Amino acid sequence: MVVLVTGGNGQLGQALQSISGNYPEIDFVFCDSKSLDITNLNNIEQAFKQFKPNFCINAAAYTAVDKAESEPEKAALINVIGAKNIAEVCKEFSTILLHVSTDFVFDGSKTTPYTEEDLPNPTGVYGQTKLDGEKAIQETFDNYFIIRTSWVYSQFANNFMKTMLRLASERDSLSVVNDQIGTPTNAVDLAEVLISMILKTHNSQLEICNFGIYNYSNEGKCSWYDFAKKIFEVNNISINLQSIPTTSFPTPAKRPSYSVLDKSKIKRVFGVEVDVWEVALNNN
């Protein structure tokens, strides 16, 4: 079985690489943006002709949430056109697509976890382009899994955890917002779930009706302040950490104030066991 991964050098791509050796039954092909540019349809077709993937994990994305506000065309090129291109080539080659999306498709107006049926309403360019990418896939073909996730972190690439650890090495005190609530997701846990979905689908343990949108993050909820506090605790770092409201830390993009995801569907359909975020952080 061949699994082609776009965005192979990004955070999720590196997380997948780190565990790929545990799955000898899968021939992984990791493509970075130089070897496979998802904005170039011909480029994707050439890669699919060469590797003939059974599955494609689209982990390539524009994820600079604030920067997207000032360069919406670039964000849309990758997150919308790129997603549509991947879907079209997957359809052409009868490849099953796993596309990674985000909690930022929601506006945060709820106070209970978001399900896959809740109506998206992005508050910024990044979330809007990710939602438009989802729609482009859905309009192209049926053999897809869209996995919405949140607050992804790991030892790889750029993420909140690594930023906190870097800032702690440079400063004596830090202020972090305490009124945006969500759930951190260990990128390696997400990678394991994606591979589990592939194996169960490949082994025909699922009916075709199980294609569609799924939520996945670790369990529980916290604020960015809570997350930072736990990161420093786990790493035995002593720092003066202050909690502040979002109004004290204005950013170009408006973030959802609440974006906890309901994982009931993915647990029911795929039998996924989900660690609470504190345990996942300790295991990182």
Throw out a few tags for this protein.
284 residues; alpha/beta; two-stranded parallel sheet; 38% helix
Account of the 3D structure:
The chain is an alpha/beta fold. It is built from 9 helices and 12 strands. Strand 4 (96-102), helix 4 and strand 5 (144-149) form a beta-alpha-beta unit. Helix 2 runs parallel beside helix 3 and helix 3 runs parallel beside helix 4. The longest helix is centred in the first third of the chain and has 21 residues, at 72-92. It is globular and about 55 Å long.
Order of helices and strands: EHEHEHEHEEHEEEHEEHEHH
State the low-pLDDT regions, or none.
none
Our estimate of the beta-strand percent is 15-25%
Gyration radius (Cα, Å) is 18 Å
| Strand segment tally | 12
Tally of contiguous helical segments: 9
Short description:
The protein has 284 residues and is an alpha/beta fold. The protein contains nine helices and twelve strands.
Produce the secondary structure layout.
Blueprint: E1 2-6, H1 11-19, E2 27-31, H2 41-51, E3 55-58, H3 72-92, E4 96-102, H4 125-140, E5 144-149, E6 152-153, H5 160-170, E7 173-177, E8 181-182, E9 185-186, H6 187-202, E10 212-215, E11 222-223, H7 224-234, E12 240-244, H8 264-270, H9 277-283
Parallel strand pairs: 1-2, 1-3, 3-4, 4-5, 5-10, 6-9, 7-12
Antiparallel strand pairs: 8-11
Helix pairs in contact: 1-6, 2-3, 3-4, 5-7
